[in-house]
Amino acid sequence: MSTPSSNTPPASPPKHASGDKGTVGRRPEVVRLMLILWTVMVGLELVHQIINVIMSLLDPSELKAAARQQAAAEGLADNVVDSAAISSILLLGLFNLIIIGVLAWMLAMIARRSRMAVTARLMLTVFSLFFVLRSLMLFFAAPGGTAVPIAWYAVDGSLQILISVIGVLAVLMSRKPESVEWIGTREPLDRR
Fold first, then answer.
1. Are 127 and 151 in contact (CB under 8 A)?
2. 12 DSSP 8-state letter
3. Integer Cα distance of 131 and 165 in angstroms
């Protein structure tokens, strides 16, 4: 029976056997929080857009009045104007859903560390700042004469403010050195 020589160091346990679960492919905590924040922001934006469509459908009177003025000059019937107003609300809602889908795709690109992750971070940053500007406009706007209960506006406004705060926090997390290192930086173009 052979005994190990005293000169050989003891074999180190494999990484998975020690408490370390292998930090090579794991996201840093800052990146994980950034992705959670942006995911919540996109999810709440979806809820906001759904509420916005519901509120527009509850009282489309302003839209119908504007459409009737144009239709009077062209001689269109009222039922055509009504269906055009409802169609425009639904079409705008669909367009907003497409934008939310693009934001979700950007999140997936960052989570997968795609080669387009830097562009995705930039786009999410731009939308986060847009949400901040949109929430600031809430303080300068007042709901017009509408049949929609004021509680709908209160909930929607609160959601918009929450979306902007979450967006700012996510942008701050995305600018941390760990996030920048994990996502990567844009290489300058060689313009010779």
1. no
2. P
3. 9
Cβ atoms 34, 113 nearer than 8 A: no
Confidence of residue 14 (pLDDT cuts 50, 70, 90): very low
Average pLDDT over residues 55-70: 80
pTM: 0.77
Q: What is the 3-state secondary structure (H, E, C) of 14-76?
A: CCCCCCCCCCCCCCCHHHHHHHHHHHHHHHHHHHHHHHHHHHHHHCCHHHHHHHHHHHHHHCC
What's the alpha-carbon Rg for the chain, to the nearest Å? 26
Backbone angles phi, psi at 120, to 5 degrees: -65, -40
Residue 31 CB neighbours (<10 A) = 22
- φ and ψ of 46, to 5 deg: -60, -45
Where does the pLDDT of residue 126 fall: very low under 50, low under 70, confident under 90, or very high at 90 and above? very high
- 118 DSSP assignment: H
Angle between helix 29-58 and helix 150-174 axes, rounded to 10 deg = 160
Mean of pLDDT values over 35-50:
96
